[in-house]
Specification:
442 residues; five-stranded antiparallel sheet
Length: 442
């Protein structure tokens, strides 16, 4: 009998400890359930020692099963289910507050503050933020659209904003995506350094859902229409981009000056060795690759009413077959041709298929066919035209410091003379030899 009483007291002690812990963790929901506590206590007191032993055994079994389930969850974590949940606008005040502070810090160029909200800002990005902030007055009319993230305390946030520049009256619309996480202290932060493949796949799949794609396309369309209707805005953004790129390049060069000097010295020693003459090459074909600038639909023909073949995520690359004058581009997709609106594509690379003539007496081959990246291996003589994909300055020399000859606009075709290895393309512009940055033409 004493043994049974001791077991009962031990069991009651455990249950009261469990009850206390439950109340402390769930205070807000325990109070309405207080009426049921008495009934629960009566039930506990009525349990026999035999039942108390069985309860402890059942608890141990449940804990073992939970541990096994957690282990299996870790094994299967490479595939995370993405729920079909609609975007919510301004649904989480804490997320809104974090992103509001982040954009204020971005506008001020305060890198230490930016890094306190974002865990993965490298030195190059930090310089770009500082340089860009010199031209930014504020980010206005923020709207935060969210979807639940892959784990508790995580969110996918898509932030619409209007960027106000110091030297321009009109605000420019924009959209950025963020992965928001909760740290060990319960504080939210922007996670730009996620490396988990399962999480990256989750974010990718969620961002391909129709409501996110529609939001992306709506903002992109508004932005592109503004550029098409306002030539001054296009020129302003071209000049702004050039100024920021130049400033970032100069800062990086200054920061890495010592390392560059050491590299140059080592290179000079290597250059003293006799070099083999390079084989002559002739270009027989040029292959263009394009990259999507946002998530966009792929269609069977050049029409918005055409059948949808699939979706391309931001950053996907395709072989360009033809850029048409009606605003669509024909691409190679799944072994056949398909179409994407040209405004959602940018030039990724240009490859030239070349015939290499090795003037080697010991080599019986008259020529070997190779593929070389024309923009990376050296200047390439090409014929035909290039199409301007963004409004861009035309300069008298292959440098951002070169005299400005004029401006080329989206869709304008330029006669190309030569593609240079330094990122510039030599063209004919208004009867003159001129230069344009290769990234702005295709």
């Amino acid at each position: 009998m004493n043994t049974s009483n001791n077991n009962l007291l031990e069991f009651l002690s455990e249950k009261f400890a469990d009850l206390k812990e439950f109340v402390m963790k769930h205070l807000r929901i325990v109070v309405p359930a207080a009426v049921g506590v008495l009934a629960i206590l009566v039930l506990i007191i009525s349990l026999s020692a035999h039942n108390a032993k069985k309860a402890r055994e059942a608890q141990a079994l449940a804990e073992a099963e939970a541990a096994a389930a957690e282990s299996q969850l870790n094994v299967d974590s490479a595939v995370l289910s993405v729920p079909e949940v609609a975007l919510e606008e301004d649904a989480y005040p804490a997320v809104n507050e974090l992103l509001k502070k982040y954009f204020i810090a971005m506008a001020s160029g305060d890198i230490d503050l930016v890094r306190s909200y974002n865990n993965n800002i490298d030195d190059t990005e930090a310089i770009r933020i500082e340089e860009t902030a010199k031209y930014i007055e504020s980010y206005e009319n923020l709207k935060v659209y969210t979807k639940i993230g892959p784990a508790a305390g995580t969110y996918l946030a898509y932030v619409y904003y209007e960027e106000k520049f110091r030297d321009y009256e009109q605000s420019i619309p924009g959209l950025e995506a963020f992965y928001i996480c909760t740290d060990e202290s319960g504080e939210l932060y922007i996670n730009d350094g996620e490396e988990s493949e399962s999480v990256i796949n989750y974010i990718r799949e969620a961002s391909l859902q129709d409501d996110v794609v529609d939001l992306n396309n709506e903002v992109a369309s508004t932005y592109n229409n503004m550029l098409a209707e306002n030539e001054d805005l296009s020129i302003f953004l071209v000049d702004l981009t050039e100024s920021i790129d130049t400033a970032v390049g100069e800062s990086l060069a200054q920061n890495e000056g010592t390392a560059d000097a050491q590299t140059a010295e080592a290179g000079a020693e290597e250059d003293e060795e006799e070099e083999e003459p390079a084989p002559s090459t002739t270009v027989s074909e040029v292959v263009h690759t394009v990259r999507t600038t946002t998530t966009v639909n792929i269609r069977s023909s050049d029409s918005e009413t055409a059948d949808k073949l699939g979706k391309a995520a931001e950053g996907e690359e395709f072989t360009l077959i033809e850029k048409r004058g009606n605003g669509w581009s024909e691409i190679s997709y799944n072994g056949s041709s398909a179409f994407i609106k040209s405004e959602y594509l940018e030039d990724a690379s240009t490859q030239a298929v070349v015939n290499v003539n090795n003037d080697d007496d010991d080599n019986d081959n008259t020529g070997d066919t190779q593929t070389a990246a024309a923009t990376e291996t050296g200047s390439t003589k090409v014929s035909g035209t290039v199409t301007v994909k963004e409004n861009v300055r035309i300069r008298a020399s292959a440098s951002t410091e070169g005299d400005k000859i004029g401006t080329a606009y989206v869709g304008q075709k330029l006669d190309v003379i030569e593609k240079l290895a330094n990122g510039w393309t030599k063209v004919k512009f208004e009867g003159k030899t001129a230069y344009v940055k290769s990234e702005f033409v295709e």
